[in-house]
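Per your request, structure below.
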């Protein structure tokens, strides 16, 4: 590609049973089309908005059929695309940045399947289907772990025998990296600066929750680790706990590894504490009405998150900006108020009226607190554009 001609880029996020997609026109980042194909493997639902409005149910057996169906809709619009960007969850240490896809990249994604068994396989299926349908197009992998690939060794190292670490690639990888890049860029823009000017603590609070310390544009710590289980209290994941607890339950309760995996990943978090729901709105409402389990879930979630803010401020030698994002971070006034309470010693003071509004700057203290919506698709589109142009 020569110069800054307009490129239409298809961004694909291939999940286990779904494909989310958007088409951007770059360099202006105009969204031409957005859609979601759900329930792959059965009677699937395809929803498209933008230049063409589609809502239909159709049998889709696999990702090959799914992407072919999406492409058929593009043909109806006579909408030619020039490149494809893919979200890939786990690049481990193979790739710490986005990369044009070739056989070597495919092999690395396959090699990292044991580290992300639920995510890398469908990511690969989307890539392979796209390469078959568009063999002539450049395609780019944007890794969710990439932003955290250059964490300081002291931050990613587990205190384990190093031969074991080497043999099994045991380290803290961190997740939500694409989202954190977007959050840092948008939050800095709100205060008229760039991420390279700031020490940013970002809170991605949704059903999966992650905290990130971004020091002058570089990720230097992240709450998730080898897997997304580590860190903050999440909707159904436990977050941080004593590893000996797992051994205790194996030994004393006779629980198998499979049963423990189910408990820690699917039955814990605010669902496990409240005994009510994995839906934060349900838990928050019940907590406000005095439900004991919901109140404890709310307080535990807030406490753990506040601890991470303090820890990351210490790790970076201070904090210049606190950012909220994700479904809970963007929409819960109560959560933002509770997290920001009594943090004046860090320069953080939430303004009640601005917090109620829930967008942009919501603070009055020395350290700005902002609410932004992470846009992973934009990051993927930009990286794809840059690599193709290059």
């Amino acid at each position: 590609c020569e110069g800054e001609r307009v490129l239409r880029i298809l961004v694909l996020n291939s999940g286990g049973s779904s494909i989310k997609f958007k088409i951007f026109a770059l360099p202006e980042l105009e969204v031409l089309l957005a859609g979601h194909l759900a329930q792959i493997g059965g009677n699937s639902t395809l929803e498209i908005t933008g230049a063409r409005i589609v809502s239909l149910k159709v049998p889709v057996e696999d990702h090959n059929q799914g992407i072919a169906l999406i492409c058929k809709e593009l043909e109806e619009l006579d909408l030619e695309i020039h490149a494809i960007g893919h979200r890939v969850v786990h690049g481990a240490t193979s790739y710490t940045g986005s990369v044009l896809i070739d056989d070597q990249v495919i092999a690395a994604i396959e090699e990292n399947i044991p580290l992300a068994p639920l995510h890398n396989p469908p990511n690969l299926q989307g890539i392979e289907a796209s390469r078959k349908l568009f063999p002539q197009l450049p395609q780019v992998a944007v890794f969710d772990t990439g932003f955290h690939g250059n964490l300081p060794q002291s931050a990613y190292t587990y205190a384990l025998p190093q031969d074991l670490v080497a043999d099994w690639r045991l380290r803290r990888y961190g997740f939500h990296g694409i989202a954190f890049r977007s959050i840092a860029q948008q939050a800095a823009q709100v205060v008229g600066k760039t991420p390279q000017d700031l020490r940013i603590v970002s809170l991605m609070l949704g059903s999966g929750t992650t905290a990130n310390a971004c020091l002058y544009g570089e990720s230097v710590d992240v709450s998730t680790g080898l897997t997304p289980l580590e860190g903050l209290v999440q909707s159904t994941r436990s977050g941080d706990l004593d590893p000996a607890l797992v051994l205790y339950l194996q030994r004393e309760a006779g629980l198998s590894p499979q049963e423990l995996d189910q408990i820690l990943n699917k039955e814990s978090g605010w669902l496990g504490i409240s005994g009510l729901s994995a839906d934060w709105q349900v838990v928050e409402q019940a907590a406000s009405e005095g439900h004991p389990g919901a109140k404890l879930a709310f307080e535990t979630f807030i406490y753990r998150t506040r601890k991470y803010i303090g820890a990351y401020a210490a790790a970076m030698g201070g904090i210049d900006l606190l950012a909220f994002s994700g479904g809970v971070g963007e929409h819960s006034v109560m959560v933002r108020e509770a997290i920001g309470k009594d943090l004046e010693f860090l320069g953080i003071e939430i303004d009640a009226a601005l917090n109620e509004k829930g967008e942009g700057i919501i603070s009055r203290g020395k350290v700005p607190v902002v609410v932004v919506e992470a846009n992973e698709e934009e990051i993927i589109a930009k990286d794809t554009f840059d690599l193709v142009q290059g």
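The CA atoms of residues 238 and 264 lie 6 Å apart.

Regards,
D.
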